[in-house]
Structures are given as C-alpha cells and as structure tokens.
Amino acid sequence: MSKSHKKNTLRPRGGGVPGGRRFPWSISIAVLVIAGLVSIIAYNMVPKAIERTEAQKYAPSADNPDPSQSIDGVTEIEYAAGNHIQAPQRVAYDQTPPLGGAHDQYWATCTGIVYPEPIRTESAVHSLEHGAVWVSYNPDSLNPSDVDALASQVNGEPYSLMSPFPGIDSPVSIQSWGHQLEVDSVDDPRIAKFITSLKQNPNTHPEVGASCATVPGGFDPEAPFPFDASPPGPDAIPAASEQSATDLPVATTTPAPVITGDRGNG
C-alpha cells in the first residue's frame, strides 16, 4: 500500500494574488501625503499671490501719481513738513494715530522693523515724512496669529515699520504722510494696495530720498523712545502748525487740519 503525499501549496507573501506583485502601499501613502501638503500650500499661497498681483496695479506712475485715491476708506490730510521738536516735548496731534504734522527730530528706524512694543509717536511720524508706511494696530483687538500675518507685510521691507498703538478705534490703522487707512481685518486686501500706492511714493511725501536707517546717537531700534499715552502737556505744539517748536513755547489750541478727502469705509 502506497503512502499518500501532500503537496505543499505556495502562498504569495502579503496576501497577494499568486504570481502577482505586492501592492506598494508605502509609496501610495507617501504620494497622498505629498499631494495633501501641496494642496495646503496652494490653499495658503495662491490667494496671497493673487493679492500681490492685484496690489501691483496700484503702483504710482506718471499717469496715476497717487493710486491710493481709488482705494475706498483712505483719508487724506495736508500737513506742513519739516517742523521738528525735541524730546520730551510732545505734539498735540489731531488724528489718532497721526499721519503727519510736527514730529520728533529723530525718525524711527523704518527699515522693515516690527516693533513688539509701542514707540514714540513723534518719531514714527518723522518716518512718514521720509516716505515710510507705518502699520499700527490695537494690541487688544488682534490675536498673535493676526499680528504675525500683519507683520509679514512689513518685516524686512524697506521704508516700512510696524508697532502696536494702544487705544486706537480700529484693529489696524496704516499711515503714510498725509494718508491713513483703517481696517477691521488683517486680511483686508486694501492693506497691500495702500502700501504699494504710498510707500516711497515721490508724489505724496515731502522728503524724497531721505533715509530710513538708524541715526547714530538718535533713535535706537533696540531701545526705542517710549510711547507716551498721556495727554500732551501745555508746551505741546499743534500738529498742523507751520511754526517750529521754538516759536510756540506754549500751545493753547490745535488748528483744524485741511481735509482733502475721506472716501468712506468700503
């Protein structure tokens, strides 16, 4: 009687089909992860690229010297230039934050610095005279991610600076010389349009070609002149005055500014 023999059946590893290949799960997962990352990046970057492209339409030109005039919500006020004071004297500004007028003899360094604390207002206004754009915000109205988003439009950018300004009415207020835009959101596309229109615009600020760099012995960006939230004292001079501080030892009234445009809040 012969012995029966069992034949060994070969089974493919990994549960695949006999004679087939293993399914490359690791490669497929990696592809899905990469695709997801690309989608996330595109979701965040494409709108910003579109916003920058749109903002470039607001670059000043001979035919359009002040493109900000077509941006809804921009206020324009005319101020005399070159009126300097010395700390600790103050200026009785007619706007908060101010967008022009008398100012400190030393400008705030405006080479794309994001100041974490409020700085002397009179120094920031001098930066505007040099063609800088000053981005200010109410620290009680923005969360840290909002502040970071706002800072991304300033950090490292020549002729710009950013600092908190406690107590202002709107979450964000942006100033160039004689111009101001208040917005409720850091994602407002008018921010980029305003910056493109007015930063170093030779048609809108008094001292074309003036420096934004640090002045030795003057304003120190590592230890800036401090912000003073108290009301200006009796020796403060009016913002709109065409006289120097030495001509006005005591300021009793603040002249009304000349407002040339306020185009709503659209």
Distance between the termini: 102 Å
Strand content: 15-25%
Helix content: 10-25%
Oligomer: single chain
Number of H/I helices: 4
- Quote the average pLDDT: 85
Structural class: alpha/beta
Global shape: elongated
Radius of gyration: 29 Å
Q: Describe the biggest sheet?
A: 7 strands, mixed
Number of strands: 11
Order of helices and strands: HEEEEEHEHEEEHEE
Give an overview in words.
There is one protein chain. This protein is of the alpha/beta class. Helices cover 21% and strands 16% of the residues. It has helices at 25-55, 121-129, 144-151, 190-198, and strands spanning 74-78, 84-85, 91-92, 103-104, 111-114, 133-137, 160-164, 172-176, 179-183, 237-238, 258-262. A 7-stranded mixed sheet has the order 5-7-6-8-9-1-11. The radius of gyration is 29 Å and the shape is elongated. Mean pLDDT is 85; it is low at 243-266.
Descriptive keywords:
266 residues, alpha/beta, seven-stranded mixed β-sheet, two-stranded parallel ribbon, 11 strands, disordered C terminus
